[in-house]
Amino acid sequence: MTTATLTTDTTTDQAPVRRVARLFRPYRWSIVVLLAVSVAQGAAGVASPFLVRDIVDQALPQRSASLVVLLAGGMIVAAAIAAVLGVVTTRLSNVIGQGVMHDLRVGVYDHLQRMSLGFFTRTRAGELQSRIANDIGGVDNVVTNTASSVVQNGVAALAVGIAALVMDWKLAAVCLIVVPLFLAFSFRLGRQQRQIARGRQKQLAGITALVEESLSVAGVLLAKTLGRQRELSDRFATESRALSATELTAAMSGKWVISSRRASLTMIPAIVYLVAGLTLAHGSAVFSIGTVVAFTTMLSRLVAPATALQGLGTAASTSMALFGRIFDVLDLPVDIQEKPDARSLPRMRGEVRVEDASFRYGEDGGWTLSDIDFVVPPGTTTALVGETGSGKTTLAYLVARLYDPQLGRITIDGVDLRELKLSAIADAVGLVSQETYLFHESVLENLRFAAPEATDAQVIAAARAARIHELIVGLPEGYDTVVGARGYRFSGGERQRLAIARMLLRNPPILILDEAASALDNETERAVQAAIDELARDRTTIAIAHRLSTVRNADQILVLDHGRIVERGSHDELVARHGRYAQLHGTLS
Ligand SMILES: Nc1ncnc2c1ncn2[C@@H]1O[C@H](COP(=O)(O)OP(=O)(O)OP(=O)(O)O)[C@@H](O)[C@H]1O
Asked: In what residue span(s) does the ABC transmembrane type-1 domain sit (predicted)?
């Protein structure tokens, strides 16, 4: 069995750029449009310095009103066009960014849905929430804002560069002096920021997991009754302090480099005036005054894009680290896979066979189940009994293919579970566990989760058969009452009957029933028993039995001990044997 795990430490350093690029492939035409609009925006942006040059060199000396109106009007129009195109590019880049984010979120969620039960028993719930909320959320910010920023500012900077060369290549060449200064330290900064980003996401995941665990109903109950709230608050404070420290480091990281880069940019106009002034002082008027003014105006336009672009390195490094964490999830191996040529079972008899099956949870642990071999003929009931920890639940999970046995096989109507479609197994095998999970939705929706196409009448019929209808109609809002973790709280016996109603709606030919171990009062007990009898009728049933009535009526009883079947037979046979079952018998309620 592969043991896919997702801990805070399995994170890959960096995502391959090509894989990230592939995410954008479905949006390539939108990206082309975005580029085109940005080029137009960049061109509109650099039109004004040329107009400024002509105003200074021609319109002002000539005192020509019409020329000034024309050129100044041109500046206004160019600015307006650039502003409108800016909004268009922002919208386009957000559409692209959100599309990619949606694909990623759905991809991660779908992949997690395919993971086996074992994966979820090994993973903290908050860790998964964090991957979806914090990591994808973090990338979201970067991708959407950065994508537009790269394109807009990149194009703007390029446009300024080209315009500078066109206007006066000699002055443009002088400005190149500052480039090496500008690029200094870029690479070292990237690596540092990636590390910070990874650290931050790990800490965020830790905090989310702690909140998820400690502020759940069960967590709050535990902390309150054990008086441990102070400790939990302290733990939270410690995690939060660590996160604040990381955020501070992140905020300050590379600030010196960034400041000196910005300073180098603002020095450029001084260099331009210096060179122009010195050449004029020596009598050779190589540049017109208009050119010098326009040039410095234009270069001042470089400050905003250049500042934005230098933040880009940080953003790119951060997002690569986050993409790495997201790809970790997408790359988790799915341990319970459906074969490409998996079959369905059109007409089911409902025979279950477990053939020499052995199973262990971890590769290095001991065997939880060894050499399990039995047949449940269609329509009969087999009861599993055994001390706590003997492997009853595990065996039941194997029959529902929540785990695969490492040795041996399990068949339904002679077909190995591993040859069947997962949907076919879900249709064939229904599991009623001790824990009935209810979503935060109405009773009706909760029941219908088992069979979405069921009509209201069918749902009510199932609830009646499960002896829970009367109780539901007595609730404040009847079938529309909201239940679940934060809604109306059903008692244990009521929840079991809801689970039974769900299973009646689903109507699987094979039923796995984990009887509640806790004792119920007589009346509830009778109601639950009646509901179970209704459910088990004409179905192949494997019951993890805690009640004497269940084992008495079972066609076959299997006694498990440390993962092995140590006795088998009917109630009377086993009692007569005076063995393990006879000892256990007294513990059944
Ligand atoms: N996810 C898991 N990872 C590792 N070990 C597990 C896991 N689930 C169960 N076990 C171990 O496997 C053994 C069998 O557990 P199982 O739940 O099948 O017993 P059980 O007979 O159903 O017990 P009970 O009657 O108390 O529910 C136990 O020792 C248990 O600790």
From this structure: 32-318
